[in-house]
Amino acid sequence: MTRSLEKEDLLASLGAAPVVCDVYDIERLVEVVTAAAPEVVMHQLTDLPDELSEIFTFAERNARMRREGTSNLLQAAGAAGASRVIAQSVSWELPGDAGASVRDHEHAILDAGGVIVRYGQLYGPGTYYETSRPDPPRVEVMEAARQTLPTLHALAGTIVVINESPNA
Known about the structure:
Elements: H1 8-13, H2 26-36, E1 40-43, H3 59-80, E2 84-90, H4 96-111, E3 115-119, E4 121-123, E5 138-140, H5 141-148, E6 157-161
Parallel strand pairs: 1-2, 2-3, 3-6, 4-5
């Protein structure tokens, strides 16, 4: 699912069956998730900028995604009869409302019996850190993908996916 018409072709070229839908349009969201009839919903929703230098200007938008987007997706997953939801999160503490929105997001997922996957800062192709490594906690993007596969069968709870922690 993408809310961007421009990303439809990219997703199709990667082998996905893209659906354009805005997570804030709850009626459409329930319709498309129900039509997909998923067993598992993988929550990767974010509202982040393309450029790292703009990250703080998107904080309010991303907090809304964590709260309202998560709530809407959980509602759609329930309507579709999905047996579980797996949701991405972060493995470091964010300040202010950003941190509060992470806690709200995680509590909503855990209260629904879902799995939280806390990723370290991603680095590698297609990330903010394509040629350098961010401060820990961090994880190389392909390693993050490999470590995410077992979460499809994980029990409800929280899983941390990192290569290096701040204490390493």
